[in-house]
Write a structure and sequence with these properties.
Layout (H helix, E strand, L loop, with lengths): L5 H16 L7 E4 L15 H9 L6 H20 L3 H21 L7 E4 L6 E7 L9 E4 L3 E4 L8 E2 L4 E8 L12 E14 L2 E7 L6 E4 L2 E4 L2 E2 L2 H10 L4 H7 L9 E4 L8 E6 L10 H9 L1 H6 E7 L6 H18 L6 E6 L1 H7 L8 H7 L10 H11 L7 E7 L7 H4 L1 H9 L4 H13 L24 H6 L10 E6 L16 H4 L6 E5 L9 H18 L1
Parallel strand pairs: 3-9, 14-15, 14-16, 16-17, 17-18, 18-19
Antiparallel strand pairs: 1-5, 2-3, 4-7, 6-12, 7-8, 8-9, 10-11, 13-15
Helix pairs in contact: 1-14, 2-3, 3-4, 9-10, 9-12, 12-15
Length: 547
């Protein structure tokens, strides 16, 4: 190895190591544990009958008998629980959770059927049903109070105290899930409630707490308990989608079919969609902290539904924007009654989002090639790909946009040796390389000053000198779409000379913004508490203006 080549190779290796290390630690993990008995059980005098049945259910060798005891414990506590007695509610919820856990472990929880549980004096009839809309396909039920989460994403729970046992229902997606924009595997928050007909029979029900805030049990109206965090946390811990960020940056040609808009909850035509778009070397996992904080707000939870756009971030971002437009076309077909949406984009996801709210027509094409689209004889697929990426107008379904740490005018890091080194490691799909070759074959050397020595990837299209970046910044955001900027300054308070360490203020700042918020954050501003509060404020302002 010659000494002249050694530094470049060392730098490339160092860049890969740094990026790889940043993807190794699980942001959240979990263990299964035995659920703790409520503190009310420590004082059996308060609810002695319920506590007695809980203690009698400790025979792991006879799950049907244990189920009968949990049934009785829940029944004994239910009267006071529905009246709002905290101790009784804790005992009722614990007993219902143990009933579900016991029957699930025994494989005897056939939803939609009736079974006999208990023995002798506690022999009972139990009907099991799911609320319409929660589905009845085969699924695994995990009781939330048996899960203990850890990691940097842990401890940010969106919960609602109330009656019932929160569970996570896990199932494979239904056939045609891509056409319905559902995830390949479903993790859904449900709440189990035991509704008593009389002393010897009851119905075990599963309800969707996003659709139902209160429930009538025993002739009384109660708040339905919920844990909205557990499904997403469990999904991240099991699937480790966060690990895909690096590989989808460096080798996007392996993942060209993976760009997808995904719903994080059941579709609801009455709720406004919030579509979150991640940035370079990232995945939808990066939105976990914000998503949980938004779900923690009852008004936002009631009025909004949340979607994400997942894509291989090594692709040039104008092309990725065309993939997002394709997904939005599909959503329009699948859900023609959906409300106009709010876009929230971080970093490169912000400039992808900006292309959704900009009327460009063929101005960028002309600016880059010096000719109208019909004057340039680019063949076949290459012409279609270029047209989709460079000729576009704003999306009518986008009602507002939020740009977080967004390099509208590019990032000097992309033009630095670090950016150039990382760029050389990206492996584009062959059809994008073909576009460069087909364009080069029909352009004269000085056409619009455009030089195409290689097919640009996402890092190249983040350079301040990139031709697309320069052309898009000649165009304003559509006048009828309010937009907001959230910008990090690393806590230095030096704006307008500030930077988040990756994107400088001069690149993130946009004239005409409805608001601009500077937060004491590095480039991960979308995870900053002040930034999350600002997104909450914007979403509530959006509701006020749309009333």
């Amino acid at each position: 190895m010659s000494s002249s080549h050694a530094p470049g190779r060392f730098q490339a290796a160092a860049a890969v190591i740094v990026m790889a290390l940043s993807s190794c630690a699980a942001p959240i993990s979990y263990i299964r544990q035995e659920a703790r008995i409520p503190a009310a059980a420590a004082d059996p005098a308060s609810h002695p009958d319920a506590v007695r049945h809980l203690k009698a259910a400790r025979d792991p060798g006879n799950p049907r008998a244990a189920a009968g005891q949990f049934f009785e414990a829940a029944r004994m506590a239910s009267g006071k629980a529905t009246e709002g007695d905290p101790a009784a509610m804790a005992l009722y919820n614990h007993a219902v959770a143990r009933l579900v856990e016991t029957l699930e472990a025994d494989g005897s929880l056939p939803w939609g059927t009736t079974l006999e549980i208990g023995e002798g004096g506690t022999r009972r009839t139990l009907r099991c049903r799911m609320e319409p809309g929660t589905g009845d396909r085969e699924r695994q039920i995990v009781v939330v109070d048996t899960l203990k989460f850890s990691g940097r994403y842990a401890g940010n729970e969106a919960i609602r105290e109330g009656l019932g046992a929160p569970v996570v229902a896990i199932s494979a997606a239904e056939d045609g899930h891509r056409k319905r924009f559902a995830a390949p595997q479903s993790f859904v928050a449900l709440t189990a409630v035991l509704r008593f007909d009389h002393a010897e029979s009851a119905t075990l029900e599963l309800h969707d707490p996003l659709d139902r805030e209160r429930i009538a049990v025993g002739g009384r109206d109660a708040v339905l308990a919920a844990n909205f965090t557990a499904p997403t946390a469990l999904a991240l811990a099991r699937t480790r989608v966060d690990k895909l960020g690096l590989v989808r940056l460096l080798n996007p040609r392996r993942f060209t079919d993976n760009a997808a808009l995904i719903r994080l909850q059941n579709y609801d035509s009455k709720r406004i969609p919030v579509l979150m778009v991640h940035g370079l070397q990232d995945t939808p996992a990066t939105w976990f902290l914000m998503y949980q904080q938004l779900l923690s707000d009852p008004e936002l939870r009631r009025r909004y539904q949340f979607w994400v756009f997942c894509y291989p971030s090594g692709l040039p971002y104008p092309y990725t924007a065309s993939l997002l437009r394709r997904e939005l076309d599909g959503v329009r077909q699948a859900f023609p009654d959906h409300k106009d949406l709010v876009l929230v984009g971080h970093s490169m996801g912000g400039i992808i989002s900006r292309l959704m709210v900009t009327d460009a027509g063929d101005a960028i094409w002309k600016g880059m090639f010096g000719k109208a689209p019909d004057e340039l004889a680019i063949p076949g697929l290459s012409r279609q790909l270029l047209h989709d990426a460079l000729v576009f107008n704003k999306r009518d379904e986008v009602d507002r946009a939020v740009f977080i740490a967004t390099p509208h005018r590019g990032s000097m890091l992309a033009a630095s040796w670090i950016g150039r080194t990382a760029s050389r490691l990206v492996r584009l799909p062959s059809y994008l390389t073909d576009v460069r070759n087909d364009v080069a074959s029909v352009l004269v050397a000085d056409t619009a000053g455009l030089k195409l020595n290689f097919a640009p990837n996402s890092i190249d299209t983040l350079s301040p000198t990139n031709r697309f970046v320069r052309e898009i910044n000649k165009l304003p955001v559509a006048a009828d779409v309010p937009f907001h900027s959230i910008i990090g300054d690393r806590g230095r308070g030096d704006t307008p000379d500030s930077s988040d360490g990756v994107v400088a203020y001069w690149s993130s700042h946009m004239e005409g913004a409805a608001s601009e918020k500077i937060v004491p954050s590095n480039h991960s501003a979308h995870q900053n508490p002040e930034a999350i509060q600002e997104v909450k404020r914007i979403l509530k302002q959006h509701l006020d203006e749309r009333r």
